[in-house]
Write a structure and sequence with these properties.
This protein has helices at residues 2-6, 10-30, 48-55, 57-60, 75-85, 128-131, 153-165, 217-220, 233-241, 263-284, 317-320, 327-346, 355-364, 387-391, 471-479, 483-490, and strands at residues 61-67, 91-95, 115-119, 141-146, 149-150, 170-175, 181-188, 193-199, 203-204, 206-208, 211-216, 246-255, 288-290, 296-298, 351-353, 374-379, 393-394, 400-403, 410-413, 421-430, 433-436, 447-448, 456-460, 463-467. The chain is of the alpha+beta class and 497 residues long. The strands form 4 sheets. Strands 1, 2, 3, 4, 5, 6, 9, 11 and 12 form a 9-stranded mixed β-sheet that branches. Strands 15, 16, 17, 18, 19, 20, 21 and 22 form an 8-stranded mixed β-sheet that branches. A 5-stranded mixed β-sheet has the order 10-7-8-13-14, with helices on one face. A hairpin with a 4-residue loop joins strand 7 and strand 8. Helix 3 (48-55) packs across helix 7 and helix 13 packs across helix 15 (471-479). The longest helix has 22 residues, at 263-284. The model is unreliable at 1-5 and 32-51 (pLDDT under 50). Residues 51-291 form the FKRP stem domain. It comes from Papilio xuthus. InterPro entries: FKRP_N, LicD_transferase. It holds the Pfam family FKRP_N.
Length: 497
């Protein structure tokens, strides 16, 4: 039969084959379970970590909104994005005070059952429990979300997996179109200085740019004020001190409605952020901030403000706190000393760096890191050459010259408001010895006149300054043997035991 079929016409062969294919197709459709060559199914064991994070995200984390402007924001729609994707996920909105204008939620009360608005302002009737934002975080993780953000299920799942893989780190992803800058943070408590350094890696102390942050709640609860403003800058300062790193992972959350588009709104937001930053730096004692581009921002005293430390009674307050002189005060001491030296030299006065200032010049080519003032010695017979020493008052640059109420010496203040100062100490020559001219001061005593003949030059605060010709021998005479070595070894305890 097969032989007869092969000898048949070509058209017949085609019809026969098409009919056979059609019958087989109908048979497979009617009996899908029947297979000519059954293949055993291949099973892939589920990833327990991934299964847990994807199925239980609502139980795993709480969403927190803290970065927004109360006068203009996209919080309502941002919250709606999470509520729609995860109806059972708790959402906490942390406000500085009672929110006004109120958030314009379009969802029903039932949809918003897990959304809580928490005002953090002080209220007489509130309990400490109510005013503590950590009270409302009862899940294992916290997802901190900026304003105008839309959730991505896939990216959130990736973040959750990364967070469980690296439980001692924070996990961050950017928001669409945002450029994230990884930063290293150096907080120098002793020198009142905060420094940001740009880093090319993805393991950071801080992140600049709009981003979402996933952090373990237990880590957050080790911080003194995790939600202090400005946020998240204050958060990253606290995590840096505890060596908690933030890892940037791939992926992006969606961006929401654009806010703060008008110049007036941007200016208002900038002002609010700056005031919050100044308040934070005042609490922490940050006087100088060095940015990634090496620009220096000062947050300490200026000519028209009071100095950063109170009147000294024995030991300066900053030394008792384990710190050096605030850098802004050191800068102003340096400016005052430079101005006084220039004025004296222009008047033809024989002057030189005295004890503590000379010690700083020898050790550091600058004032000592813990100096409370500068000291400049002069010949008492040259006082008449400087009218400001005789009459006192403000000079053309705003420095205040005045004679001390106790003793025949002078003080030059940085300004009428800022009492940072340099001392001008007259010495009288008698029989080859320089004696203090009717004044008494710690660390000051007579010395051989030969130390001033001739005067030497020494680097001091970026300028050349006159100094005794044998500085080390001079300091040993004033402060005891090996004064320079003891200063290097003891630090401020050398002068303030």
């Amino acid at each position: 039969m097969f032989f007869r079929f092969m000898r048949g016409r070509f058209t017949f062969k085609i019809y026969f084959l098409l009919t056979l294919i059609a019958l087989l197709t109908i048979f497979a459709y009617i009996f899908p379970h029947f297979k000519l060559y059954p293949i055993a199914p291949v099973t892939v064991p589920p990833n327990g970590l991934q299964s847990r994070t994807t199925r239980h995200l609502s139980k795993l984390l709480t969403v927190v909104f803290r970065q927004f402007e109360e006068f203009e924001n996209d919080i309502a729609d941002s919250v709606q994005s999470f509520v729609s994707a995860f109806p059972n996920m708790p959402v906490v909105i942390l406000c500085q005070g009672i929110q006004y204008p109120p958030f314009q939620f379009s969802a029903t009360n039932e949809t918003l059952r897990n959304v809580k608005i928490v005002p953090l302002e002080f209220r007489l009737k509130a309990s400490p429990h109510e005013l503590n934002p950590l009270t409302y975080l009862n899940t294992e993780y916290v997802l901190i979300v900026p304003d105008s953000t839309r959730v991505s299920r896939r990216v959130l799942q990736q973040m959750a997996i990364a967070a469980t893989t690296f439980p001692s780190q924070g996990i961050a992803v950017g928001v669409t179109n945002s450029r994230l800058i990884c930063q290293k943070v150096k907080w120098n408590y002793v020198d009142w200085t905060l420094q940001y350094i740009k880093d090319s890696g993805k393991l950071c102390d801080a992140i600049n740019g709009q981003h979402v942050l996933l952090l373990k709640t237990s880590l957050l609860k080790t911080l003194p004020q995790p939600f202090a403003l400005p946020f998240p800058e204050s958060l990253y300062l606290q995590t840096t001190v505890r060596n908690i790193k933030i890892q940037i992972v791939d992926g992006k959350f969606g961006a929401g409605r654009s806010v703060l588009k008008s110049p007036a709104a941007k200016q208002k937001a900038t002002k609010i952020a700056r005031e919050a930053r100044i308040s934070l730096y005042k609490q922490l004692g940050v006087k100088m901030v060095i940015r990634e581009d090496s620009r220096v921002h000062w947050f300490g005293c200026k000519r028209d403000t009071q100095r950063c430390f109170p009147s000294v009674q024995g030991t300066p307050s900053y030394i008792l706190s384990g710190r050096n002189t605030p850098p802004c005060c050191r800068r102003n001491i340096r400016r005052t000393a430079t101005h006084v030296l220039r004025t004296l030299l222009q008047a033809g006065v024989r002057c030189w760096l005295e004890t503590t200032s000379l010690l700083g010049a020898v050790v550091r080519a600058d004032i000592l890191p813990w100096a409370e003032y500068a000291e400049i010695g002069i010949h008492a017979s040259d006082v008449s050459r400087v009218s400001l020493l005789q009459r006192g008052g403000a000079d053309s640059e705003g420095f205040i010259w005045e004679r001390a109420t106790k003793g025949h010496y002078y003080r030059v203040a940085y300004s009428a408001t800022n009492s940072i100062y340099a001392l001008v100490l007259p010495f009288t020559a008698k029989n080859g010895t320089m004696w203090p001219a009717d004044w008494v001061m710690a660390h000051q005593k007579e010395f051989p006149e030969r130390h001033l003949h001739p005067l030497a030059q020494i680097q001091f605060g970026g300028h050349q300054a006159p100094a005794p010709n044998d500085a080390r021998a001079f300091l040993d005479l004033k402060l005891g043997n090996s004064a320079v070595e003891k200063c290097n070894k003891l630090g401020p305890k050398f002068l303030y035991p």
